# Entry
Amino acid sequence: MTSPPADLTSLRSARVTAARKLAKRSFRAKERRFLAEGPQAVREAVAHQGGPEGRTLVELYVTPEAEERHAELIAAARAAGASLLRATPQVIAEMSDTVTPQGLIGVCRFLDTPFEQVLAARPRLVAVLAHVRDPGNAGTVLRCADAAGADAVVLTDASVDLYNPKAVRASAGSLFHLPVAVGVPVETAVAGLRAQGVRVLAADGAGEHDLDAELDEGQMLGPTAWVFGNEAWGLPEETRALTDAVVRVPIHGRAESLNLATAAAVCLYASARAQRSPAGCRSVTSS
# Structure
């Protein structure tokens, strides 16, 4: 079968230029649009209809070859109301943030949730990213929170942009799965969560409370929010002071520490297990 011709062949096309600008945070904020690249992200964007600003997927750029390879996904995108634009592989590569583009790039509307709405849902498990600067880490923590069954993720105003292409890619589709509030001052986040009866814990390698002990003593059965800090220097003292307790993940071996995403996964799953089986939960880190 002969592939249909591409509509976009020029790297200087106005559409290509506009889409490429979405790699910049200032332009994303102005347009309230971001890029979702690859079949998995596009599939999740198609499924995420009825967001705060209408349908999530607005435009879909696709190579003729990818259109044939992902025919069902393309049909679903069309049925959801997205505009389809065929582009050459060179044009897709110009728009892409990856070394080996997969031939599909979606332009999506922002889908963050107001923090007040997160609180109104009375969440039981929340991840708060305070001072997290690496987009790959932010996306990975979001993915961990989704996998652990968290009710929401909050990014403070001192953290990286949620819609950074690397963060979107690292979330592996989880960006479209759970409410995410952005740009919330850490003081506002902690105060709002505590007012809803959520116990707020700071994750820090130098914490005075041990995660295993917290589990063993039944301290993690109720609604919990974990605050995760900067990859290099953790949480500032003023942020730790806002929380109910500073908790460390115990290191039983000889490793110096855990990286942010790994520590976040351990903490979130500890809470998830405690909340789901309170009578049987003892420890998730002991052998």
